[in-house]
């Protein structure tokens, strides 16, 4: 079987002729996932998952390994770009109400959960000061589960505190989950192939479709090259732009940082966690901030925002709320930040209750192939 035969179902897939560059995020995410897996495999050959050697091995990779600095910076900075693209991808899906394609939406949500898990585990591996205490804070949330919480936390740690068994387990999971994501990505593409793509108008696109190749191949290639150039610029000019200073310090269990702060792409969820004083309530709100995405397809499909000005205003408010929560997550827990955060947390959840039902009901035509 030739390569042309294998690629024909993909290159000849009919696509709506009016989809814009905002539909390019899916192909970019696939490219970034392959980049992460490739660089991750190379880094794993030199990384030592031991609490007394992990930090030194990172330094050795950066300073002694041939092109190690480049591989490490590509891996760490591409993770941030990965989240940026997936947030844009989700935003586009919500804005155009493409979540009525339930199967692609569910597989995409599953990919988001796996990505968050993988990123959190990878953030712990350098064993810097912020890595250690981030692991301590987040894993301790499991202790809020009634009856089994403490036992589950100790099982995850591999003991009564975060140590070598914890680092080994986190490294193993961080290495394996991306391969599960690859399989799930293919499932996501398959479901999209079966249901078809939506379009900006939200109307029946079966009347005007064109083959994926060469039209969208050229369009996707342009954004792919632009993204690669952006990664190159960041890694060679501003390699630590997404990093925190405290994570360049060796982890010290006896010294707590004055302000524990996760990576920027987790700050919105971290704000929601801190907005509720009760530990169990904060944990439930944190989980709900992600699982609430599953409620969107439960509503009856509505007309796309192209014809509905009110949802555009509400969606813009949601984007501002998300940005504000991310900023508040980097602020200390003190006045006035601790009084503002609950307000934006409430607005975040209210969006998912009001947005899907704001416009008059109209069932979009499924864009079947």
Query: Level of helix content?
Result: 55-70%
| Helix vs. strand class | mainly alpha
Mean pLDDT metric: 85
Sheet-strand content, in percent, reads under 5%
Report on the biggest sheet: 2 strands, antiparallel
Protein name: Cytochrome b
Subcellular location: Mitochondrion inner membrane
Keywords: Electron transport, Heme, Iron, Membrane, Metal-binding, Mitochondrion, Mitochondrion inner membrane, Oxidoreductase, Respiratory chain, Transmembrane, Transmembrane helix, Transport, Ubiquinone
Pfam families: Cytochrom_B_C (PF00032), Cytochrome_B (PF00033)
List the main descriptive attributes of the protein structure presented here:
369 residues, mainly alpha, Cytochrome Bc1 Complex, Chain C, Helix Hairpins, 61% helix, globular, disordered C terminus
Task: Describe the fold and architecture.
With 369 residues, the protein is mainly alpha-helical. It has 2 domains: 9-255, Up-down Bundle (Cytochrome Bc1 Complex, Chain C); 261-363, Helix Hairpins. The chain has 13 helices and 2 strands; from the N terminus they run αβαααααααβααααα. It has a two-stranded antiparallel ribbon with strand order 1-2. The longest helix has 32 residues, at 164-195. It is globular and about 65 Å long. Its cofactor is heme b. Residues 202-369 form the Cytochrome b/b6 C-terminal region profile domain. Keywords: Electron transport, Heme, Iron, Membrane, Metal-binding, Mitochondrion, Mitochondrion inner membrane, Oxidoreductase, Respiratory chain, Transmembrane, Transmembrane helix, Transport, Ubiquinone.
């Amino acid at each position: 079987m030739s390569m042309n035969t294998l690629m024909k179902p993909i290159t000849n897939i009919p696509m709506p002729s009016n989809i814009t560059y905002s539909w390019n995020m899916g192909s970019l995410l696939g490219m970034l996932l392959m980049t992460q897996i490739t660089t991750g495999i190379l880094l794993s050959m030199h990384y030592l998952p031991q609490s007394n050697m992990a930090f030194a091995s990172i330094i050795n990779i950066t300073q002694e390994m041939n092109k190690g600095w480049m591989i490490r910076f590509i891996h760490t900075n591409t993770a941030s770009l990965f989240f940026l693209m997936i947030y844009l991808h989700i935003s586009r899906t919500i804005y155009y109400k493409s979540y009525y394609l339930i199967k692609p939406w569910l597989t995409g949500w599953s990919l988001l959960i796996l990505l968050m898990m993988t990123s959190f585990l990878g953030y712990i591996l350098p064993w810097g000061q912020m890595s250690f205490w981030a692991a301590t804070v987040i894993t301790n949330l499991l202790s809020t589960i009634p009856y089994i919480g403490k036992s589950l936390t100790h099982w995850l740690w591999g003991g009564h505190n975060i140590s070598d068994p914890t680092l080994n387990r986190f490294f193993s999971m961080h290495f394996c989950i991306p391969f599960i994501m690859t399989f799930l990505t293919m499932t996501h593409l398959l479901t999209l192939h079966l249901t078809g793509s939506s379009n900006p108008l939200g109307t029946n696109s079966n009347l005007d479709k064109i083959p994926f190749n060469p039209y969208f191949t050229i369009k996707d290639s342009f954004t792919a090259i632009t993204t690669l150039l952006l990664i190159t610029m960041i890694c060679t000019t501003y390699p630590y732009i997404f990093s925190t200073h405290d994570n360049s310090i060796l982890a010290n269990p006896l010294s707590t940082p004055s302000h524990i702060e996760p990576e920027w792409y987790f700050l919105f969820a971290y704000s929601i966690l801190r907005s509720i004083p009760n530990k169990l309530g904060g944990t439930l709100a944190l989980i709900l901030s992600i699982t609430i995405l599953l409620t969107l397809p439960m509503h009856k499909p509505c007309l796309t925002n192209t014809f509905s000005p009110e949802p555009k205003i509400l969606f813009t408010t949601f984007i501002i709320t998300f940005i504000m929560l991310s900023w508040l997550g980097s602020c200390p827990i003190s006045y006035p930040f601790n009084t503002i955060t609950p307000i934006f947390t409430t607005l975040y959840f209210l969006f998912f209750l009001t947005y899907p039902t704001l416009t008059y009901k109209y069932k979009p035509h499924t864009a079947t192939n």
